[in-house]
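WARN no homologs supplied; continuing
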Amino acid sequence: MAALQLYGTWGAWPLSPRVTAMDTELDDLRREVERLRGILPDRVDVDPDQVEHGLAKLVLALIEFLRQLLERQAVRRMEGGTLTEEEIERMGLALMRLEEKVHEMARVFGLDPAELNLGLGPLGKLV
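OK structure emitted
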């Protein structure tokens, strides 16, 4: 800070590439925040009748995400030869039952299972 007062202005020092890169990153971040402000609603609509529906959708989407993740891991392990035939059968049956249960619960809440793939804006879809 004292050095800044000695020279009086930033113009007296050449900017290092590191400072310039940080400024560029900060500008990029500001632009991204402004872009997201245009995507997100100005306020959250907390309709009491829709809270249960929205919560069910979120929970079921997370469960479906985890199920798909477990399924992919099971396929990798199966292809890698680290599972026995019995383990493959049990895991396949468990994942199939979990998928059926998620779809059944979605119907209870009036959701189409395709709705469980939540949009994450610029990041794409959850699953």
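Confidence is low (pLDDT under 50) at residues 1-10.
OK
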